[in-house]
Amino acid sequence: MRICRFTTGEDPLYGVLTGELDEFGQPEEDAVIVALAGDPLYVGVKLLDQEHKLEDVRLLAPVLPRSKVVAIGRNYAAHAAEMGAEVPEEPMMFLKPNTSVSGPGDPIFYPRQSENVHFEGELAVVIGRICRDVPVEKATDVIHGYTIANDVTARDLQKKDVQFARAKGFDSFCPLGPWIETDLDPQAFIDGVRIQTHLNGDVKQDGNTRDMIFDIPSLIAHISSVMTLLPGDVILTGTPDGVGPMDPGDEVEVSIAGIGTLTNKVAQR
Ligand code: MG
User: Fold this and answer.
1) Alpha-carbon distance 124 to 151, whole Å?
2) pLDDT digit string (tens) for 133-143?
3) How far is the CA of 46 from the centre of ligand 1 (A)?
4) How far is the CA of 183 from the centre of ligand 1 (A)?
5) What are the pLDDT digits (tens) for 39-73?
6) What is the pTM of this model?
């Protein structure tokens, strides 16, 4: 099931996007969203007798993390290498504030404090229930679904600051979407799912989730051994190699096979 959040100009609603995706992860032209009563994270999937054409709505971030976005650094060896960094012995985590979250089609605002803002295409895991100390073998039980993220990073500030809070935490630095896919088999990511980032149509990142150093169950076990995870919390699983700069006016697309494509444009603040 693909769960989205959308507005027709009125209060936002959750919905289920019907139909198939084409080979580029785009919905069919006549795709329909069936609206839901409430947030399916808390009340389950309750279909309303209300349908909207996808083309008539604006999609919003499919989840609003109540407490946090936990991001994993250097989870692909080739990306660690391009940063001139070692592969960590344990998952390296940092937080992005929930105020950095934005939706598909929303602008990524180029902050005046930076002169080197990078894209980082990533697979995002949405947590479905409150949990802590989750064992690896139970980790998939706490997953609500999967979506796509851009872990936007002010690379110059990341190098300058010891902490990543500023470099990774600006408003609009965590686009999520376009929807949450709830039906993927977690084993698929271990077997390998392609993740690509295009900038103005040119391929910049072409990675595969099989190259993650720490797989998703290991990440959930590790993070939840430190902090309680809440429904709607999001884990960014790290970026493949090929990260690079974006400028105002650029369009960045992150695509993950079986999920879809997250598209955003960079804008001057
Ligand atoms: Mg990242």
Assistant:
1) 10
2) 999 999 999 99
3) 34
4) 24
5) 999 999 999 999 999 999 999 999 999 899 999 99
6) 0.97
Question: What b/e sequence results for 88-106 when a residue is b if at least 16 CB atoms lie within 10 Å of its CB, and e otherwise?
Answer: eeebbbbbbbbebbbbbeb
List, in order, residues 6 or more apart from 236 with CB less than 8 Å away: 69, 70, 71, 72, 96, 122, 123, 124, 149, 151, 174
Q: Count the neighbouring beta carbons within 10 Å of the beta carbon of residue 239.
A: 29
Question: Residue 200 and residue 83: Cα distance in Å, rounded?
Answer: 23
Contact 93/251 with Cβ under 8 angstroms? Answer: no
Q: Which two tokens stand for residue 77?
A: 């060896």
Which pair of tokens denotes residue 1?
């099931």
Measured in angstroms, how far is the CA atom of residue 71 from the centroid of ligand 1?
6
Q: Tokens 């409150």 correspond to what residue?
A: 130
Q: How far apart are CA 37 and CA 43, in angstroms?
A: 8
